[in-house]
Amino acid sequence: MTPIAKQIPILLVLLAIALGCTIASAQTFVEYTAKFTCGVAVAGNSMVQPGTYSTTINIHNPHDDMFSQQPSTKFLKKAVQSLPEGKQMLPPSGFVTDVLNNDYAEEVDCTIIRSLLGITGTSFIEGYVVIISPPTTNPAGGFFTNELDVIGIYTNAKGALEILPANAHFVLPGTT
Strand (E) positions, 42-104? Predict the structure, then answer.
């Protein structure tokens, strides 16, 4: 056997280790953004028609105990208020850690959004709720991507109703 042929098994092992580390480190975070409109809008004071607006964002953990070894999914959420261009921007809320058991759901409504932002009252606000679901480690040393079902429900005092899925995008660490 030639000296180069003797080195091939070692090179293959090193290559497998390097590829395994690369694959294992490709943790995928899932980020959702759901629009919110909350409160009383008055004429000339906002970009929307005068009226009373409400939003409920439903978050569902679709994992099933029968097929999943993890009993719940941990995620982060924050609220970001949108203001008209040219106005002093406000910082987003801090992230809050939340946990949903498999096949459970929760709603984030205007009361919770105002609480996240530290805002009281009923004045009109709009913006986004951002939800980030980090991966979890599986027993084999890799990662599970934890997707959630996120839907926004939007109503106004006239009874108009619109149901929209949140925008979901996958984020690999170091790519944003």
Answer: 51-60, 72-82, 96-101
DSSP 166: P
CA-to-CA distance for 83 and 53, rounded, in angstroms? Answer: 16
Determine the structural domain holding residue 44 and report its residue range: 27-171
The first and second tokens of residue 73, run together, are 């999914």
Which pTM does this prediction carry? Answer: 0.75
Query: How far apart are the two ends of the chain, measured CA to CA in Å?
Result: 49
pLDDT of residue 52 exceeding 70, the answer is yes
Whether residue 176 is contained in a domain is answered as no
Domain total of the chain: 1
In a domain, 16, yes or no: no
Question: Within 10 A of 38 (CB to CB), how many other CB atoms are there?
Answer: 25
Per residue in 53-98, pLDDT (tens digit) is: 999 999 999 988 776 678 899 999 999 999 988 999 999 999 999 9
Cβ neighbours, 10 Å, residue 30: 19
* Within a domain: 104: yes
List C-alpha distances in Å: 174 to 25, 27, 59, 171: 11, 10, 26, 9
